[in-house]
Amino acid sequence: MVRLAAAGRSETVPSVVRYTETPPARVVSLNLCADQLLLALADRGQIASLSPLSRDEDYSFLAGLVDDLPVNGGTGEEILVGEADLVLSGRYGTRVKRELLERHGVELMVLDPWRDIAGGREQLRAVAARLGHPERGAALAAEIEAALARTRGIARRPATALILYRRGYVPGERSLVGELLGHMGLQPMQARLGLTQGGLVRLEQLVMDPPDFVVMDEADARAIDNGTAFLVHPALARVLPPERRLFLSDRLTICGGPSTPAAIEALAAEVRAKVNGER
Asked: Are the C-beta atoms of 245 and 216 separated by less than 8 Å?
């Protein structure tokens, strides 16, 4: 497997197997994030099939564009029978399928999750170029840059922020949402909690030493299972009431790419309303 990311460059640039310069005619996606890039950057006629999650409106930002496009079952054998000439795959959870496709000479682009804007921008450009539409990657990158320009340093006061998921999971300091928080003028909280690489935060820690704000999906603000019960615990609700919770839908942040401009604007709206107190 050829690794495109040279030393010092972002890991988000796709790895490519058996690269050819001819734009592919039958492209298959094996995961949700690849679906989003394919829907945004490819001609509709180039899309041979998408992953099953592509139609799920709870997770897929571009679910409304899928319509009658085929959905695959995710097996390597199915993709071989369908004669795909390019497969977009995630880095994780697809190793066996990738190895099967590689053995049969199928071209792969392996996409890493977005950890930062710079790496994401490179990924957009690489995928768009491989699909034969470099101008579409450049246009989406420009949308992201414009959203960033509108939201740089918008927080009007110093404040700490912690990204908080189900069961109390906190991502490491290097994440796309973490970069956006810093871009808008908020300070990360992970180091103070001893979680620079991410991990589970104890309820007692948050109650005794809460951040000024947490970032979470509003859908998790209701106790529907053990994972969300952590987020609505009465002790946590007292120190982090709704006005100190910056709601950002997971649908906008699971994947970097077409949803990123909307994620930037949604987070900025919460910062303006709750950090700045704007109406």
From this structure: yes
Give dist(CA 184, CA 273) in Å, integer: 13
pLDDT digits (tens, 9 = 90+) for 180-221: 999 999 999 999 999 999 999 999 999 999 999 999 998 887
Structure tokens at 48: 């041979």
Q: What is the CA radius of gyration of the chain?
A: 20
The helix/strand/coil state of 276 is coil
Q: Phi, psi (5° rounding) for residue 250?
A: -60, -30
Helix, strand, or coil (residue 272): helix
Neighbour order of strands in the sheet with 86-90? 15-17, 108-111, 86-90, 27-29, 47-49
pTM of the model: 0.89
Q: How far is CA 268 from CA 162, 264, 275, 277, in A?
A: 15, 6, 10, 12
- The amino acid at residue 23 is P
Give yes or no for a contact between 27 and 48, defined as CB atoms under 8 angstroms apart: yes
Q: Which pair of structure tokens corresponds to residue 252?
A: 């906008």
On whether the CB atoms of residues 77 and 103 are closer than 8 A, the answer is no
pLDDT tens-place string over residues 66-111: 999 999 887 667 777 667 889 998 887 667 777 788 787 888 899 9
SS3 per residue for 225-261: CHHHHHHHCHHHHHHCCHHHEEECCHHHHCCCCCCHH
One-character DSSP codes across 8-66: TS-TTSPEEES--SSPPSSEEE-SHHHHHHHHHHS-GGGEEEB-GGGG-TTT-TTGGGT
Average the pLDDT over 31-60 and give the result.
95
- DSSP states along 124-154: HHHHHHHHT-HHHHHHHHHHHHHHHHHHTT-
